[in-house]
Amino acid sequence: MPFIRGYTKQDGTPVRAHWRAPAGTHKQTVLAIGIVAAVFIFGGSGTPAGSAPGGGERLPAPRSSPGVTYPIKWPGWEKPAPRKTPVPAPAVSYPIHRPEWKQAAPRPVPTVSYPIKWDRSGGGR
Predict the structure, then answer these.
(1) How far is it, in rounded angstroms, from Cα 15 to Cα 99?
(2) C-alpha span between 17 and 25 (Å, rounded)
(3) Is residue 71 a contact partner of residue 64, using CB atoms and an 8 Å limit?
(4) What is d(CA 30, CA 21) in angstroms, rounded to the nearest whole number?
């Protein structure tokens, strides 16, 4: 990073001395900060710093209490509640036909008066 010494602009504005980052480093700096933040947030190993990776203190497995019957069912789950909102229905069926459209539009007449040769596989260039 170059060090810019203090100077005075042509219009008389004084500029203090400062460090200037080289061109194009802003994007890389933001990317590096993002990677460091991601490692800091997601990079923990899950074990304390002083314990071994497989022989740490383990918590006992959770046990169910004797007064609970599984699976747990709530009274509202047995029968579904009636629908209070109406079911949406389509407002129109496609294709749309109008009475004045009894006859289809006439087909366009080709306006090309010369033959077009579509076979261009031969030489000639």
Answers:
(1) 80
(2) 20
(3) no
(4) 13
Sign of the alpha-carbon dihedral angle for 113, 118, 123, 125 = positive
Cα torsion at 48, 51, 54, 58 (round to 10°)?
-70
- H helix count then E strand count, the chain: 1, 4
**pTM to 2 decimal places:** 0.26
Torsion of CA 104, 110, 111, 112, to 10 degrees: 170
Q: Are 29 and 21 in contact (CB under 8 A)?
A: yes
For every one of its 125 residues, what pLDDT tens digit does the chain have, with 9 covering 90 and above?
678 899 999 999 999 998 888 877 888 888 999 999 999 898 866 655 555 555 567 788 877 777 777 788 877 777 776 767 887 887 877 777 777 777 777 778 877 777 777 776 665 55
